[in-house]
Design goal:
The complex is a heterodimer of chains A (291) and B (280). Chain A has 291 residues and is mainly α. Chain A is globular. In chain A, a hairpin with a 6-residue loop joins β1 and β2. In chain A, 73% of the residues lie in helices and 2% in strands. The relative contact order of chain A is 0.13. The two termini of chain A are 35 Å apart. The longest helix of chain A is centred in the N-terminal third of the chain and has 33 residues. Chain A is built from twelve helices and two strands. With 280 residues, chain B is mainly alpha-helical. Chain B has one domain: Orthogonal Bundle (MetI-like fold). In chain B, 75% of the residues lie in helices and 0% in strands. About 2% of the residues of chain B have low confidence. Classes of the chains: A mainly alpha (291), B mainly alpha (280). At the A-B interface, α1, α3, α4, α5 and α6 of A face α1, α4, α5, α6 and α7 of B.
């Protein structure tokens, strides 16, 4: 019974493990291998070049620019997502009429295809006919229409769109946790004379610590590697190079310049940066009780 | 259950206003998309803009169906997403059941592997993945897409389903087994019915992930006839003259299935296991 049952367990998990290894883990390792080659994206020929791809990138100003844009983009969107998401979750945890509807609608932006988020905002932010410029002009905040997709504002537009699209993830996770905080804690704090702010700092935040740890980790990984939102925004405008983050740079190298070796090198560098920063993050913030 | 905040208290005022702002910020862009898609061309560019269409028209939809391959893209999206769901759920349900009901060597290692790969983003694997797919000779097929999505959805499906199976007490199964049921019967008559809500919710997340994807289609598919909706709509935008009415009507139509499914699973999401349910 024992032995056969063990066998059964292994049989059932094998397809999952096989697919994950073959289609997720193996490509990553193969990517590391490719990063030592000069390889054309379409033709099979490849030539071993050792560390040449890495050395090339170290001297490439475009690479450093994309690393800077990528970091700037991820840090600012993560901070804003967490702040907006936390505030929204606190509001949605209050009891008010129509709460369930608002809770549902707030999650919409996260569920829709990215391409829809992009076309929506490109239309809203259109410099000639967009509603945002119209309203800003009507209220008198600006005197001339802003060129949201122009080089001066495209990073701001990208950040606004990304925060709009991804803050619901923070709401979802934080709200789920808020609902499990025992009301007794708040009552005790009230009896001790704690005001609303002090209850937030001393009761709510410590309870949210673990969920925020995970949310910041996941959002950082996914914002740093975000491709489609950034790439789709660059389409059809001339200011593409002002939001060329690392993932977009890797994509362009591979599929527009056909340098699959260099593209893989960039993917490996991204992977390396992520592993290094998550290790530091875990060392700094992880508590004994785990995540 | 907390008492409702009265609209007339100061605290209630703050909450209602904040909730209203939140609602407008998230819902208004959708409203604007819907409104634009029912406006005739000249009304779209009118200033000041009309919030609701004055001359309601379906012309944008007619144009979308007649002048673009929207319906082909739609069919492709349905096909690829549905098959992804079937494969992923078959494999992940078996896997999650194994992880929660059997003890074997390496089980915890497998769980860590799943959690680790859950954090992967497409751009990290797409380049080598593409080279491999080309080498096997299945580039530009729906099979390549389905494989990519299944692999990509497996970690989070396994993770979610594992949590679901863990919440079903072992005792129930043991009771069925003691009563003489085979394991097969115990699973089908006791466990699966209880796990069904979780399985449906996970299936819907998988569907949405496949439906929404852009990067894999962009890279793996080159024939126009095999493209799915995300890329199809993005290409409409890249056409020389941007027809906002038509693009908005297309955007609305690809959003509807997602929102219908989403409304269906919403209560599970908010009920408490939201964290880690989705990715991207």
């Amino acid at each position: 019974m024992k032995a056969s049952s063990q066998k059964m367990g292994i049989i059932l998990i094998t397809p999952s493990v096989f697919l994950i290894c073959a289609l997720l883990v193996y490509p990553v390792l193969y990517g590391v291998w490719l990063s030592f080659f000069k390889k054309h994206s379409f033709f099979p020929d490849q030539r071993f070049v050792g560390l040449a791809n890495y050395l090339y990138l170290l001297k490439d100003s475009e690479f450093w620019m994309s690393l800077w844009y990528g970091t700037y983009y991820s840090v600012s969107t993560i901070v804003l997502q967490i702040v907006v998401g936390l505030i929204a979750a606190l509001i949605l945890n209050e009891a008010f009429r129509g709460r369930n509807i608002v809770r549902g609608v707030v999650l919409f932006p996260y569920m829709i295809p990215t391409v829809v988020a992009i076309i929506l905002w490109k239309w809203l932010l259109n410099n000639q006919f967009g509603l945002v410029n119209y309203l800003l002009l009507a209220v008198g905040i600006i005197d001339d229409p802003l060129s949201w997709m122009g080089k001066d504002h495209i990073m701001t537009s990208l950040i606004i769109i990304s925060v709009w699209e991804f803050f619901p993830f923070v709401v979802l996770s934080v709200l789920a946790r808020l609902q499990t905080i025992p009301p007794v804690l708040y009552e005790a704090a009230k009896v001790d004379g704690a005001g609303a702010w002090s209850r937030f700092i001393h009761v709510t935040l410590p309870q949210l610590r673990n969920v925020l740890f995970v949310v910041i980790l996941l959002r950082s990984i996914w914002m740093f590697t975000k491709f489609d939102t950034v790439w789709l925004l660059t389409q059809g405008g001339g200011a593409e190079k002002y939001i060329r983050t690392l993932p977009v740079f890797a994509y362009m190298r591979t599929f527009m310049y056909y340098q699959a070796g260099l593209g893989s090198t960039l993917a490996v560098i991204m992977f390396g940066i992520l592993i290094a920063s998550t290790t530091i993050y875990f060392k700094m913030f992880r508590r004994e009780e785990g995540i | 259950m907390k008492p409702k905040n009265s609209f007339f208290s100061l605290r209630g005022q703050v909450i209602y206003w904040c909730a209203a702002v939140l609602l407008i910020l998230t819902a208004f862009p959708f409203f604007w998309m819907v409104s634009t898609s029912f406006k005739p061309l000249r009304e779209i560019f009118v200033s000041p803009p009309n919030f609701l269409p004055k001359n309601f028209t379906l012309a944008n939809f007619v144009q979308l169906f007649e002048q673009t391959r929207f319906l082909i893209y739609f069919r492709n999206s349905v096909f690829v997403s549905t098959l992804t769901v079937i494969f992923t759920m078959a494999i992940a349900t078996a896997g999650a059941y194994s992880l929660t009901r059997f003890r074997f060597y390496g089980r915890e290692k497998i769980a860590s592997l799943i959690l680790f790969t859950y954090m992967f983003a497409p751009i990290m694997i797409i380049i080598p993945f593409y080279v491999l797919i080309k080498r096997i000779g299945i580039a530009n097929t729906h099979l390549a897409l389905i494989l990519a999505y299944t692999a990509f959805c497996l970690p989070f499906s396994l993770w979610l389903l594992r949590a679901f199976f863990q919440s079903i007490p072992l005792v129930l199964e043991e009771a069925a087994l003691v009563d003489g049921a085979t394991r097969f019967r115990a699973v089908f008559h006791v466990i699966l019915p209880l796990a069904l809500p979780g399985i449906i919710a996970t299936a819907i997340f998988t569907f949405i992930l496949a439906w929404n994807d852009y990067i894999f289609v962009r890279i793996l598919i080159t024939s126009d006839n095999l493209k799915t909706l995300s890329v199809g709509i993005a290409d409409l935008y890249n056409a020389t003259v941007i027809d906002w009415g038509m693009i908005m009507s297309g955007g609305m139509l690809i959003t509807i299935p997602v929102l219908v499914f989403f409304i269906f699973i919403q209560r599970y999401l908010i009920a408490g296991w939201g964290a880690g349910a989705v990715k991207g």
